Amino acid sequence: xxxxxxxxxxxxxxxxxxxxxxxxxxxxxxxxxxxxxxxxxxxxxxxxxxxxxxxxxxxxxxxxxxxxxxxxxxxxxxxxxxxxxxxxxxxxxxxxxxxxxxxxxxxxxxxxxxxxxxxxxxxxxxxxxxxxxxxxxxxxxxxxxxxxxxxxxxxxxxxxxxxxxxxxxxxxxxxxxxxxxxxxxxxxxxxxxxxxxxxxxxxxxxxxxxxxxxxxxxxxxxxxxxxxxxxxxxxxxxxxxxxxxxxxxxxxxxxxxxxxxxxxxxxxxxxxxxxxxxxxxxxxxxxxxxxxxxxxxxxxxxxxxxxxxxxxxxxxxxxxxxxxxxxxxxxxxxxxxxxxxxxxxxxxxxxxxxxxxxxxxxxxxxxxxxxxxxxxxxxxxxxxxxxxxxxxxxxxxxxxxxxxxxxxxxxxxxxxxx
Length: 418
Hints:
The chain is α/β, with parallel strands linked by helices. It is 45% helix and 16% strand. It folds into 2 domains: 8-180 and 347-395, Adenosylhomocysteinase-like (Rossmann fold), CATH 3.40.50.1480; 186-342, NAD(P)-binding Rossmann-like Domain (Rossmann fold). It has an 8-stranded mixed β-sheet with strand order 9-8-7-10-11-14-13-12, with helices on both faces. A 7-stranded parallel β-sheet has the order 3-2-1-4-5-6-15, sandwiched between helices. α8 (178-201) packs across α9 and α8 runs antiparallel to α15 (349-369).
């Protein structure tokens, strides 16, 4: 079996951690049990470009149980858990091409490795896999039934491709499922980002000024968790509606040029580029800690920081100290990459249970419906979203009410007034 991982001797620890995560993924487990009987992916190849974590491992195992030939590579050079990658190869016979800390050349060689397996279905997180197929492997476009995209950044890229008429196969935006973005983005990113900052710095958040750039679902989660730990939270936004929401939620709202003067901690979660720039570094206080929880390492202008610094050193693992000309020190976490996956373990399994249940069911939906789908970006079908919610509630022992026939008639009637 062809693969490229760091060290197979790490596999035992990875296997134990995969099993530990599986205990908190009852929805995916129930889907796996059905897949193992029905084999919806029999004879099909699935290539995935995702964060190689314990939760992702359980998704890959589920797809393989469904009859697929599965190949996995990393969607971020720093997010791979090497023990998990090794365990998938050694114990589950799933080829993995991912090594934590790999350089850009290796990263794309791994993406090419899973593309060259000529997949029928692709699963992406950030759209690097899908965009590489379109740029370098156009002859495969007619063979791919469809794909799924996991994150906001990737959905933005793919919608742009669809608008320009260059998208070569249908995509389901798993990121936009309610049971994904309302829970994974808010609770998962919220908790794991704080976890990553704490593991990297061991600094106290209580009593600090904590700046969150962007108030989408991820930003909401980070802001809520930082406030819960005792920080005064400042939100920066470009969208007036989101800014108003942040204000009404009780957070300080101001431009980054003002927030930069106050912040002790900074987290970017916008999906855009150069959110924290040279003009902001110029006014930051000595000891400011900056990090990113958006998908790509472009939200913090690292080139500007490099040009302004007179020295740079790694003072702790995942913490780079930049000393500026006036002696102020600014600390960049995880090279500006996803701090929650680089210096921590990413989202808790119980949250990823819903996200990856959406992935698994969306893959099945593509197999059943790809002939009738256009080359555009689709939302996750409502029936899948609701099925995931029902399964999650059932696994939590939660029951809810059902509409009565009278209520159904009332909601569907226009004749009944006051």
